[in-house]
Amino acid sequence: MSEKKPKIKNAEKIIFTTGKRKRAIARARFKLGTGKVTMNQKSIETIGNELVKMKIKEPLMLMGDRAKGYDIIINATGGGIMGQVDAARQAISRGFVEIIGEEAKKTFLSYDRNLLVYDVRRTEPHKPPRSSQGPRRYKQRSKR
Fold first, then answer.
1. β 70-77/15-21 pair status
2. CA-to-CA distance for 60 and 92, rounded, in angstroms?
3. Residue 33 within any structural domain of the chain
4. Torsion angle of alpha carbons 32, 38, 77, 57, nearest 10°?
5. Any idea what the CATH number is for the domain that residue 36 is in?
6. Percentage of the residues of the chain whose pLDDT score is greater than 70
7. Cα torsion 15, 21, 22, 28: sign
8. pLDDT digits (tens, 9 = 90+) for 68-83
9. Of 32, 62, 95, 125, which is least surrounded by CB within 10 A?
10. Count of structural domains, the chain
C-alpha cells in the first residue's frame, strides 16, 4: 500500500507572508528546500533563549513533516525581541495556511488564535497630570 501524501496547494511557488505584533513586523519567504529556518540572517538555533526558540518553532511543530520541505527566511524589524518573535511565528503560520490550506488553518486556530490573527492590544497612553508615573497612577498623598 502506498502512502498518501497531503495535498499542497502552492508547492512550486515562493510565498511571501507578513506578521505583526505591537511595533514589530516580520516578513517571511517560503521556498522549497530542506527545512532550514533563518531569522535576520541567523539560524533560529543561535538566537535568544529557549523560550524564543520554542515560540518560533511552535508552528513548525504543529505542521510536523509538512514543514520540513520548505526553507523559511524571516526578516523582522522594529519592536523588541519578543515582539519580533511573535510577529515571526504569525508570518510562519500564515505561510503554512497559504501552502497547505484549510487543514492548517483549523490546526493553528485550535492551538492559539494569535498564530493567525493580529493582536490589537496596545499600551495605554499616559495622562497629563501624572504623565511620568503612568496612565492611571495618582500621586501619593499623606493624610496627616
1. unpaired
2. 8
3. yes
4. 90
5. 3.30.230.10
6. 91
7. negative
8. 889 999 999 999 999 9
9. 125
10. 1
How is the chain classified by DSSP, letter by letter? -PPPPPP-TTSSS-EEEEEEETTEEEEEEEEESS--EEETTEETTTSS-HHHHHHHHHHHHHHGGGGGGEEEEEEEESS-HHHHHHHHHHHHHHHHHHHH-HHHHHHHHHH-GGGTS-----PPPPPGGGTTT-SSPPPP----
What nine digits make up the cell of 43? Answer: 539560524
Query: Does residue 2 form part of some domain?
Result: no
119 occurs within a structural domain: no
Q: Which domain holds residue 56?
A: 15-114
In a domain, 10, yes or no: no
In the chain the first and final C-alpha atoms are separated, in Å, by 86
